[in-house]
């Protein structure tokens, strides 16, 4: 596809499923009105594609006017906090997806928004930040004219397939991280895992917010019951739906495992604290015996016969040592030490 330096980073037309770089208004992004007029009169299966990167409000208004898009759908495209969804209208289909990636250095999920609006004879892909993978995904249409021949819905398919593939990759990453934390949870040589578990659970919740709004759509896709999908693409969309359902199940499983691990980690911390308290209490009890004896004989009353007995000092030391030893054995046997 052709690339430009403005907000439209790629554009082109597919006629009869074949990428046609010249001889139509889609060879240039300068005249949106001409491209929109071509789309209105396009034969079934023919369409043009625009990839729009980080469009401003004025640029979105220009696209809105040229292609007669729905204002509310454009508002959803502009709102980066909008939840993932698919809206099927009378003239246009809006698919708003949350693309995910794993930052290896920060060990966290990064989210970006990809929106696709399709109508008769056109498909517009909106990005909130540049993505070279979108260009490669759309490049699949050039090598698969049978898919491109199904019309603008083919763009929706390749974009959804790309995003869901990222979901599958992230699922494997989180699975590995969960297994690693689970292995170290009961390893006394490893540091406390609570912070890592909490961080993973937060990342998984972000992932869940990207995936779960699409679950109802995934059921319809996997059952091939969504009539807005061209008949020639229902098998492909069903495959995407199946992958999306497996990802959703995995995300729910991670959520349950991480919550259980968090409770187990907290319980282990409480148990360790109880052990520490028991050890401190046992040593305090042992130290109390010689302290009490020393305090009593430290008063130096003349009527204390042991003070003038020649064996008084060693006898008191023996009593202290014996008492402490007996207490130490008792606490050791009970598991307090």
TrEMBL record:
UniProt similarity note: Belongs to the CorA metal ion transporter (MIT) (TC 1.A.35) family.
Catalytic activity: Mg(2+)(in) = Mg(2+)(out)
Record's subcellular location: Cell membrane
Organism of provenance: freshwater metagenome
Alphabetical keyword list: Cell membrane, Ion transport, Magnesium, Membrane, Transmembrane, Transmembrane helix, Transport
Entry-linked CDD domains: MtCorA-like
TM segment ranges: 280-299, 311-331
GO molecular function terms noted in the UniProt entry: cobalt ion binding; cobalt ion transmembrane transporter activity; magnesium ion binding; magnesium ion transmembrane transporter activity
Protein name, UniProt field: Unannotated protein
Protein topology in the membrane: Multi-pass membrane protein
